[in-house]
Every structure is written in structure tokens, then in C-alpha cells.
Design goal:
The protein is mainly α and 181 residues long. 52% of the residues lie in helices and 11% in strands.
Length: 181
């Protein structure tokens, strides 16, 4: 980091020293709990993270599924790392949060959730079918598939009930993709 800071200082001609830090993103920290990972490797990995964080120049952000949180807390080195730093445990989204997750990205993309003959929109149907926050990955996958199957009607890009039915709903979306694969 010092070499990078010095190179940046020289490159831009700054008179004062340049501060540098590293943001380490660990997506799916879940993998550390795979059956093939030994307790020793898990412990050494946690100690490495602790050493990096102790420099106060490395920021660590990690994602972990909620169902593995208990296993995380059972590893003393990981628990110590959590207690030593600033942590933010993100709770699953509630009903309003889930609705925002489904609807808000569609707006800037100009996507319309189609309404059926009874006036029920596809986003309402998706949210009713999802029902709970642990369905988020399946909901994301289904929305991706619906986006790929979108149709253009009167200059509007629509996510349709027909495409959702073709996927066989939330539960069928993954099954359909697996069959195609």
C-alpha cells in the first residue's frame, strides 16, 4: 500500500504523502464453512483477516447467509474479528423492503409489470408467491428470467404473466433452467 501511495503521489505530483487503504470484499464468506475446509484452515483464514484489519489500512466487508451465522460465531477467531471491528448485521427485508427490491429497479429501466384481466399486476403476484425474505435468491433469478422474456407493447417494455406462467412461477423457474441446462 505504501508503494501504491508513493506511486500515486509521484504520478500526480503531490507534495504531501498520499494515504492509501484497501477494501477487501469477501462475497460468500459461506464458502469457509464448506465440508472440504478444515477447522485449521478456517482458523488461519480468520487470523489472516485479523492481521489485515489490525493494520487499520484494510477494510473488510464480508457477506454471510443468515443460516450460517451460528457456525460463524462458533469459530473463536471469526467471532473475535467480529467483536473487534464495526459490524452491521443486515436483517432480512420485511414486506415493504421486498416490494421495493422487486419494483424499484424496474422504474429506471422503464419496465412495466403487466396487469392480468382482473387487474392484478405481475409484481403483486411475484410478491405474493415469494411471501418471505429467504426467497430472495429465487426471486432474483425469476426476475432475471422475466427480463430476458420481456415483451414490447405500444412502446412499453413489459414483464408478463405469460412469461411467468411459462416459467411455472417462482418454484418452476429454477426447474425450467435446470432442464434446459
Amino acid at each position: 500500500l505504501d508503494r501504491i501511495a508513493e506511486a500515486e503521489r509521484a504520478s500526480y505530483g503531490y507534495e504531501r504523502p498520499v494515504a492509501s487503504a484497501l477494501l477487501l470484499l469477501i462475497d460468500q464468506l459461506d464458502e469457509i464453512f464448506a465440508d472440504v475446509i478444515s477447522e485449521d484452515v478456517r482458523s488461519r483464514f480468520a487470523r489472516l483477516l485479523a492481521a489485515l484489519a489490525a493494520t487499520r489500512r484494510v477494510w473488510i466487508v464480508a457477506t454471510l447467509r443468515g443460516d450460517l451465522y451460528e457456525r460463524y460465531c462458533a469459530v473463536p477467531e471469526l467471532l473475535a474479528l467480529k467483536h473487534a471491528g464495526a459490524t452491521f448485521d443486515l436483517a432480512p427485508p420485511g414486506e415493504a423492503g421486498l416490494a421495493e427490491i422487486v419494483r424499484e429497479p424496474a422504474r429506471p429501466a422503464g419496465l412495466i409489470f403487466e396487469a392480468d384481466a382482473n387487474g392484478r399486476t405481475l409484481d403483486e403476484r411475484l410478491l405474493a408467491d415469494a411471501g418471505r425474505a429467504d426467497m430472495l435468491p429465487l426471486l432474483q433469478f425469476t426476475l432475471d428470467q422475466l427480463f430476458l422474456e420481456r415483451t414490447s407493447v405500444d412502446g412499453e417494455e413489459r414483464l408478463t404473466h405469460a412469461a411467468y406462467d411459462m416459467l411455472a412461477g417462482l418454484s418452476g423457474a429454477v426447474d425450467s433452467q435446470a432442464e434446459r441446462a
